[in-house]
């Protein structure tokens, strides 16, 4: 709790400094950002952890440069992770992940083992949130609902997403072949969105490296590696840069657009054959 209070105070001091550097009063900033002045006051005095939407409004109003925005985002990320640790269960973790997604404008996601959270169907998500865990059924259902609701960001203007999966990730099937057929349809639909770039590295293509683990890069300033027990957040420039290089390497081996949809159709045919064996 003390760490959280310290970070809230540090956030308030940072926002106050950025506001003064911009030559604005608290009232000026509130008017520019379109938020209530008491909200600005509570943020600057460390009494409020702002929502991602409020942060975005304030950042735009302050016309923050890249370095200042990175400093602000890094501090907010650590705060939200500490808050999420106070919440019990899978639903709390999913809520924290959803907040992290909403606070970013650009994401690059690489997965070698499963369909990324933002692309999962509800049934796939229900199994994915519980993988490798002894979970409460109600908690898992709530967590899956939070995960699916978070996917609304895919349709918001001003955001960009890039996903690269290995064919192994697409062919790994929890549940049943029919579940995966619905999941493949979901991938086809997402691949047509104008601000989403989705690629799959076919197994017939030699990969540029061993895909040791998946990761998600947020705005080029942090990379998050998901594990069974929690998330590893990397913010050092060298670490984020290494993940960006790995992402680009796999992205260059992937297929996209019509070629991707042909590949997904071939995988779907294999799942339909599997489904016949399940029906027998």
TrEMBL record:
Pfam families: DUF5753, HTH_31
Keyword DNA-binding: yes
A GO term, aspect molecular function: DNA-binding transcription factor activity
Top-level taxon of origin: Bacteria
InterPro entries linked to this entry: Cro/C1-type_HTH (IPR001387), DUF5753 (IPR043917), Lambda_DNA-bd_dom_sf (IPR010982), TransReg_Diox_bact_type (IPR050807)
PROSITE patterns in the record: HTH_CROC1
Cellular component GO terms held in the UniProt record: cytosol
Keywords: DNA-binding
Sequence ranges assigned to domain HTH cro/C1-type in this UniProt record: 15-69
Name this polypeptide is given: Helix-turn-helix domain-containing protein
Species of the source: Microbispora hainanensis
């Amino acid at each position: 709790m003390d760490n959280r209070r310290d970070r809230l105070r540090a956030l308030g001091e940072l926002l106050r400094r950025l506001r003064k550097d911009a030559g604005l009063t608290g009232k000026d900033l509130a008017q520019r950002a379109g938020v209530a002045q008491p909200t600005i006051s509570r943020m600057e005095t460390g009494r409020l952890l702002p929502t991602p939407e409020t942060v975005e409004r304030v950042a735009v109003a302050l016309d923050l440069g890249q370095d200042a925005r990175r400093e602000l985002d890094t501090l907010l990320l650590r705060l939200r992770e500490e808050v999420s640790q106070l919440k019990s269960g899978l639903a709390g973790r999913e809520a924290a992940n959803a907040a992290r997604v909403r606070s970013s404008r650009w994401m690059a996601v690489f997965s070698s083992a499963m369909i990324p959270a933002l692309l999962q169907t509800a049934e796939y998500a229900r199994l994915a949130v519980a993988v490798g865990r002894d979970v409460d059924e109600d908690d898992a259902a709530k967590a899956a609902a939070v995960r699916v609701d978070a996917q609304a960001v895919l349709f918001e203007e001003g955001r960009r997403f890039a996903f690269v999966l290995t064919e192994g990730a697409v062919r790994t099937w929890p549940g049943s072949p029919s579940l995966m057929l619905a999941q493949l349809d979901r991938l086809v639909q997402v691949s047509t969105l104008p601000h989403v770039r989705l690629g799959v590295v076919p197994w017939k293509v030699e990969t540029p490296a061993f895909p040791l683990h998946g990761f998600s890069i947020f705005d080029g300033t942090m990379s998050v590696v998901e594990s069974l027990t929690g998330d590893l957040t990397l913010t050092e420039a060298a670490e984020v840069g290494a993940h960006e290089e790995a992402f680009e390497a796999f992205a260059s081996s992937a297929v996209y657009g019509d070629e991707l949809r042909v590949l997904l159709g071939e995988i779907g045919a294999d799942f339909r054959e599997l489904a016949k064996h399940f029906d027998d």
